[in-house]
Amino acid sequence: MPVAMAGGSSGGGRVLDCRSFWKAGSYEAPAAPTHGFQDALETGDFDRARVHPKFLHTNATSHKWAFGAIAELLDNAVDEISNGATFIRVDKTINSKDNSPMLLFQDDGGGMDPEGVRRCMSLGFSTKKSKTTIGQYGNGFKTSTMRLGADAIVFTCAIRGSNVTLSIGLLSYTFLRRTMKDDIVVPMLDFKIQDREIVPLVYGSQGDWDSSLKIILDWSPFSSKEELLQQFQDVGSHGTKVAVYNLWMNDDGLLELDFEDDDEDILLRDQGSASGGVTKGQKEIVQQHISHRLRFSLRAYTSILYLKKFDNFQIILRGKPVEQICITDELKFKKVVTYKPQVTHDSQVVSVRVDVGFAKEAPILGIFGMNVYHKNRLIMPFWKVFQEGSSRGRSVVGVLEANFIEPAHDKQDFERTPLFLRLEARLKQIIIDFWKEKCHLIGYQPTDPNLRSQYKATLKDSGGSASHVHHKNSSSRRTGGFSSNLLPETYDDVAAAGFPNNGSHLQSTGQAQENNMDSEGLDEDLVEIGSSGIFDPNFMEKLSEENLALFSRREELRQRDTQLKQTIEDLERELEETKRKCGQLAAELKVRKNHQHLHHRV
């Protein structure tokens, strides 16, 4: 592919011929001139390894999903909480050179000094090795920014002792491609505050500093040194701002990130097709559920991205804080299982809490999966431990924090080590045990013979219908803005269904297998329910209708709430306008009185 650029000669108009991320790495690299080898020997340039610009793109392909790249940049801000960070702002801004959209990230963390920003923008360097920080490979900034757009510019301000420094760095795939570089060149500028003035901080020669300035002005969205320095005005005395521009497009020539459909969100195109609902109404509910929305809604994804809720930190997406959601709070008939993996023979004993329960929408919708976190960060959302078509574990959702295994480089999966495989086998067993113990609570025939006998007796005593059990003390509520369902007031009220809450034979079996790493008992027959699994079709139909009615009611209330807010804003504007007019009338009246008073005196 040719490396010629489309657009004008201005920096903002310089874009790659191919704006599709997955095709942008396919171009012919120029061959090194024959005299370059001799020059390199004479100058000692072989003291360091060269990294071809193609590697920037190849490295970024580790992120198959654009939201995974955004999460990496959020992680950097979350890691700065220990340095005083209180927010990370994610928003759309405009490239003033060509009016194209840019993706902006800004935090108020400790910022980076000149040495730190060079470490950030070099390849494979990381000082994050603590037990709490999320980033650890030293590769996240490069892979994430290059996955979102062809170019990124960094502004960072830091206080180290009595020194206040400002640094600017440009990571531009477009610049490297257009100028036919065979090595990754990252121009950087540094400044310091001296006598309340911003003055250049030159580490090499003044010529190098001036050359970096020229490259940044030519290939960034900014046209002057003054305009560059203006970017620090809202950063404050410490913090970091990253602008990603020349954003990637899909095969249809549209931006991969959609900023237009929702003013308070950033959406992924071509990711919103819903499945899992039989009727149109059920599909609507599926579309509103977070397990579906997280695939294309950044607000939905970031709402569950971190396991523990922040005390003094916010993710502000397009001007509105993200409301964090705890998945375990969205479950009914919950149970806690302790898993003790065998990490190594000489290591400390690890104990992992696994929260498991039924999705609120059960049994109407078959939403299921395990949400696996690592160091507070979501790695695998709604992981299908069983295959999609399997009946076992229907509507079972779980949450755990697996710090004893290492995530993959893109932090969207785990390395397939023996530890991970044993975890997978154990989670399958936990789901099966939970299903066998509690599936009757959501309308399925009990798999245990003793519970099945009690179930039949309950049906006989209640005249063949157990729907009143599930409707007792029911209430509707909105959770996280994604779904609204008829739910029991007390999720763990097993006795309300007419069954004893001892579960002794089941619990003892689960405890006996607690530390068993193999996959015994994973036979499909254990949980196969078939078409006769649901004990009361009338109950299912009625519950489905009530779910749909509540969903419609929620939408009506949401619209009404929006209308009321708009009415309040209109009234407030009218009130301010009335006050302004009253002030004008009062001033005019005062002037007239003064004129009349002077007239009488004359």
From TrEMBL:
Coiled-coil intervals: 540-588
Intracellular or extracellular location(s): Nucleus
Region Disordered, annotated ranges: 462-484
Pfam families: HATPase_c_3, Morc6_S5
Keyword list, A-Z: ATP-binding, Chromatin regulator, Coiled coil, DNA damage, DNA repair, Endonuclease, Hydrolase, Nuclease, Nucleotide-binding, Nucleus, RNA-mediated gene silencing
Single Gene Ontology MF annotation: ATP binding
Cellular component annotations (GO), alphabetically ordered: nucleus
Annotated ranges, domain Morc S5: 296-435
Top-level taxon of origin: Eukaryota
GO biological process: chromatin organization; DNA repair; positive regulation of defense response; regulatory ncRNA-mediated gene silencing
Keyword Lipid metabolism: no
SUPFAM superfamilies reported in the protein's UniProt record: ATPase domain of HSP90 chaperone/DNA topoisomerase II/histidine kinase
Main location: nucleus
Binding partners and assembly: Homodimer.
Homology family: Belongs to the MORC ATPase protein family.
PANTHER family per record: PROTEIN MICRORCHIDIA 1-RELATED (PTHR23336:SF50), ZINC FINGER CW-TYPE COILED-COIL DOMAIN PROTEIN 3 (PTHR23336)
Name the record gives this protein: Morc S5 domain-containing protein
